Amino acid sequence: MGQTSSVPKQSRKRSLRSPFLRRSASQKAPISHTFLLMDDDQKLEQLNINLATEEELMTLPEVNREIARNIVEYRKAIGRFRKIEDLALVRGIGAEKFEIMKGEVCVKNNSCNSSRSQSYDSLSVENRLTPRPNNKRLIDINNASVFELQCVPGMTQEMAANILHYRIKKGGFKKIEDLLKVKGFDSVRFSNLRHHLTLETVSRSTSDILSNGGCNGTIPVNRHRKTSSAPIKFNISNGLLQSSLNDIFELLSAYSPRPLLTEEFSYRRNNQDAVRIATWNLHEFTSDKAQNLGVKEVVCRTILENGWSIVCFQEIEDQNALQILCDELNYPKLRRINECKQNSRQWHFCMLESHQAILYDVHSGAIGIEMKQITDLSIESYSTCLVQYQISSLTLTILNVQPPQKFPWDSPQIQEVIDREDPLLLLGDFSNLTSDLNGSMNKINGLEAILPLNTNTTYSNLKLKFSDNIFVNTIARTYLTGMWGVVRQGLTHLAIPNGWNWGGPVSPHCPLWTELYIRRVKENGKL
Prior knowledge:
This protein has 527 residues and is α+β, with helices and mostly antiparallel strands.
């Protein structure tokens, strides 16, 4: 340290505010205590990141216009920074850049040094009535949920998920030193975290661990026996406050991207009543997955933002998973679902023995939707769901399929459905369709595909290829408005695990939709 302090002044590269040396990203050692212990009259003014403009933020090392704008947007989302360590969470900064700039920033005019602590606490409401948790309270690593673990100062999402993964795989920690066996932990991190942790005998079952923040990263939902409007209750231990867990999810939601909508569909097209029908393969959708607040928020917001009236799901593992989604739409607990003005809160769902299910809005902009009939239709080696709806004066038949192999287009049961006189929609995943093209463009056995048959409906970041589609018969084609879409954005959330990372998609399948008039369109284009 003596050598550092003896460097000539002219050789130092300083900012306008701080006497601290700027360091390159490769210099990961902490700043010498020689500088941290300087007298107050030797310190130059540091930049208050709660008050600084974009231009002022750009005077910080490693901060360009884009990062400065991200800092300002982050500050608006959380209200204000409570610790300088919160900067590390801003997109484009991270731990290394924060180490470079931390000596040049502060969050209060009278205090320019902050303690080392995890920045998720920074979301606490400034005038909250509840007291802050005591930092001396210990977190039990054998029973804490993934969000409870993230309340530990210095604990990241990835580290918390790795602890849960180890606990489920090994059946719990036998001694606290076993944390060194967890991916992402080393002796330095362990020594920094251990005084915040404790170890008790595993008291939760495997299902409890999963529903309370296991691999799915969920917060437990205490379901009420009599009414679905009972409030969500969090399993909080070791003195952690419910508000701190809510704050964590609010932070994750604020930085989970949502698409910019080109229009707000109001159940009208060309001055005529219209509805939108969607299909979405939710990929192994269980109750545990549905209880992940990120999954729940993404699915419900996608439905409401796109104005869907009927949503056909595939790969639903149990009926309770659909009940969770339906309850959130009808009795919203998540703030961003509760704020959706276009939610009628009159959602129903239907599901039989197959893995197909349908969620529908009985109100739909006062049009009115009624399910008239639902049948499990056995076709060769698997089942499909056949549902008939009455939408105002329109009687619509929907065949919801999930082919595990080549779709049996020539099956007598399928042909019988196709030959119906009512408008028909056949929808699901048709990834094995290429062998059935036979030189045709978008038509197979009298059915026409809404999307081009070679359309890839896989989520963009995955190395898979799915071909979800919607087919209509000749009669249904006369009801089409010509509007359809594949939703490719807004399908991820920072509370959804993605392997060893976070910010994963709800499903590897993208949802798609089509739009129909309530009355048939004649050949001249008039109703």
